[in-house]
Amino acid sequence: MSQEKSICWLHIFSIVGIGLILTTPIVINGCLLAHDLQHHLIYVKSFSEQFWKGDFYPRWLQNLNAGLGSPTFFFYAPIPYYFTSLFYSLFTHNQSSCNELGLSSSLALIASGLTAYFWLKEITPKNSALIASILYMAWPYHLAVDLYRRFAFAEYWSFVWLPLILYFSRKIVRGSRINIIGLALSFSLLALTHLPSFIIFFPVPIGYALLLANRNQWKIVISRLVLAVIIMVGLSAIYWLPAMTTQESISMDAILTREFDYENNFLFTGPKFAHKRIVWQYLEILTVLTGGLAFSAWKISGQGLEVTSRRESNYWMVIAMIALFMTLPLSKFVWDALPAVQRIQFPWRFNTVLTVAIVGLLALAISRLKISSNSFNTKTLFLSIVYLTAIIFILMIIQMLPLQKQIVFWGSRNTVLAISLIAFFLLGISYIQTPINFSKHKFLVVGLVLMISLFLASVFHYRDHIFVDRLDDSSVSKILEVSKAANEHRPRWVPKDIFNEKDLSRLGENFSKIHIDAGQADFLIEKWQPRNIVLQVNAITATRLTVGQFYYPGWTARLKERSQILPVHFSKLGLLQISVPAGKHQVSVTLDAGVEERVGQIISAISATIALFLSVAFFLPFEFSCLRNR
User: Fold this and answer.
1) Alpha helix (H) residue ranges in 463-524
2) pTM of the predicted model, to two decimals?
3) How many other C-beta atoms are found inside a 10 Å radius of the C-beta of residue 453?
4) Is the pLDDT of residue 374 over 90?
């Protein structure tokens, strides 16, 4: 038992170490030149500052848009930013948000490797689970695309929860009822991390649980799944209810039309917008190679497996093919029929599901490559360990190569490197499974060739297009000075033509804090906090004030001494305006929670209470049964 535990801990330490190495460039450099990094840099800074000042769910980010505010986190999922804010107090300079993002990215990759390991060791031996979980961390869509190319921070964090959901989906069939709560929580974490990933992944664990259950178990499994889903819906209501029901207050058409429309983003149709050409071509290569590798892994894993494992292998092959199909224009009729799926914008997002499927297939395939009992000795064991270490090292180096501007592979160098790596893999496999007849293991050969091609594609295709280039302090300061929110989070009362860095900066300067538009008055700002502004106003005449925040439904002005509600308007620039009567007043200006926000909070609070009660109710019988078994 102690030996098993030590092996498990060794695997965990290996995953942590490899995750640290794979994220070394972003941990060291912080802000790298990646597509969406600017937005997350801005969000992290404001979210962390408000959180540590006592705003425990910062929905309205007061300092965004040159200090005029933004409703970003009424609509953007918060979980990745809660984890990122844990590193906030470690840094104090301009690059603090960059360092937060780097450490959070490293944490997410390590956590994804660990959750993949705990899921995969349920279906394969631990060594196979270790190798496959490392592949999960290093998979090009996960690491090269979502982290280093796109910096799709929320989608990148969703990779942490996908294996965890599958782990509890298995446990819900054969384990204690306590796993219902585990499944509900992991589903909630995914919904609170990245809603598009939740939408496309949701059917996968449902089908997975039903696959693993015998027909006579379906009734109880379905009842457990329904209960988990109900709890999940309630727990995450604090986010999704206002996010889904108040979109008319912002400019959501900015991410549902033109280059963001799903109809313009199917693979193998050619990018409709030139700036997407490089990443588009790479995604096509990546998707095709992953689909081919899935087929090879399925053929390998199908040989000699027991019935349950063969069913699991078949399931992941079907999921891989469905995910691949959904990236192609052939699937347009499905997209047209499902409005909810259209919200994910990009069909190639199904690479998240494809990544999970291929890792499950690879884990099952790797488990078929066993050390021959006849040739098992100290030398063979040593060579196997050396080979495994070399594979891990090569995968890390290959993933780091595109990030080095000085190293460019082209022409004959590509061929030499590819042939050398393929030969190395084949030679190593001959030590793991001795003897090996490559003519009888053609799918193993094909799979290895596809695997090498997959990881080398990021080196050969990107070349000068991905490299470590760090944003300097002045660039970071310039971005954070204006802190422009994403276009889709523009309140609809703000004119579209002023929603750019230059005009927002000028607007923030002209309407900093409080501006008197009409009448005569003196004022003193007593409090200036997100969603809560308090003014001391001495109005000689009736006065109209412009408050340096964008208008948004829920802004309310009150005379504190009389509890009188004052008229609230918005200017033609979309700024908040209030009318104050003559006299000396303490004016409270607050962004009150709307009906949707309050109902979401109540539902989540009730669901959390129910989940806690059920956890105790399910856990106690489980503990008593364990004691009786002892």
Assistant:
1) 473-482, 501-510
2) 0.90
3) 18
4) no
